[in-house]
Amino acid sequence: MKHLLPTLGAILGIGIGGLFTAAAQAQSCPTNAICRYEDTPGNYSDNGPYGYDSYTMPFLSTPGGATVYYPRTAQPPYSLLVFTPPYTGTQIMYRDWGPFFASHGIVLVTMDSRTIYDSVDSRARQQQDVLDAMKGENTRFGSPLRGKLDTSRFGATGWSMGGGATWITSAEYAGLKTAMSFAGHNLTAVDSDSSGRNTRIPTILFNGALDTTYLGGLGQSDGVYNSIPYGVPKLFYEASNAGHFAWGGPEDANRYVGELALAFQKTYLDGDSRWAQFLDRPPFYVATFAKANIP
User: Which of 64, 89, 94, 169 could form a disulfide with 85, with the two C-beta atoms 3.0–4.6 Å apart?
Assistant: First the structure.
């Protein structure tokens, strides 16, 4: 949904300079994209312009529990990402992604798996269950997000085995907009969709050159990137300074991770192609950088 100028009362509170900025942003917003005048495209690895809040999903509404971080002061509708945990990991390990995305106008859901030892395939099914549950939040009485979600703009993300789960979900969940993985793992996956060859949605993959673990190393992310079919937008950034445990927040490995993650989701999840210009090779900490079919 395209967002234009705020109401007259809001405009009067912006001031002349803000009014011109709002007009310029509205005019350049791609058709049907989610755009807001105060959310200027750029390179950002810290929190954005919006206040945010969080709430815990109702008991038993998700397989292992989930926390929803959402923009409190941004104009809806909102797009949404579901983040799936690594092997033996829980939400607390990557909760910093919640305030980051929420303050930039995107809902981020951190989830727990039923057990910390669940397989890649089980995590994928659970991730899809949480995506379904979040669609329900758009109509649930009492939900802070009731009537505020664009349910056609949902994405999946995950770390390690959660990244492998995301690769499966990217091929199997109808209507998904984006996939994003951190140190993804598919060596123990049974579902062949974890390979990337059936992925048809824009996908960004992060990995660390120092990751030599069975859980995220051994070329697993490289292999998925190479298997994603011709014509699908994709980006792969292997950070030269990162290992397997550097993905708990947008600046844990380096600031370029957050910058690329946000620009990618703004471009393909929100549909605001003005952000695509920021999907460039970082100036530092690069072991591998590749992209295809990105404007």
Answer: 89
Which residues 6+ apart lie within 8 Å of 122 measured at CB?
113, 114
Is residue 169 within 8 Å of 127, Cβ to Cβ? Answer: yes
What is the distance between the alpha carbons of residues 103 and 185, in angstroms, rounded to a whole number?
29
Q: Between 161-172 and 120-137, two packed helices, what is the crossing angle to 10 degrees?
A: 60
Q: 108: exposed, middle or buried (C-beta count within 10 Å: 0-12, 13-18, 19+)?
A: buried
Record the tokens describing residue 143, joined without a space.
Answer: 């939900």
The answer to whether the pTM exceeds 0.85 is yes
19's tokens: 């009014």
Nearest to 271 by CA among 134, 119, 152, 163: 152
Those residues whose C-beta lies under 8 Å from the C-beta of residue 8, and which sit 6 or more positions away, are none
Q: Amino acid letter at 103?
A: S
Q: What amino acid occupies position 127? A: Q
β-pairing verdict for 286-292 and 234-239 = antiparallel
At residue 155, what is the residue type?
G
Nearest to 211 by CA among 159, 135, 149, 140: 159
Summarised one tens digit per residue, pLDDT across range 47-78 is 999 999 999 999 999 999 999 999 999 999 99
CB-based contact 149:68 (threshold 8 Å): no
CA distances from 197 to 61, 127, 206 (A): 32, 20, 18
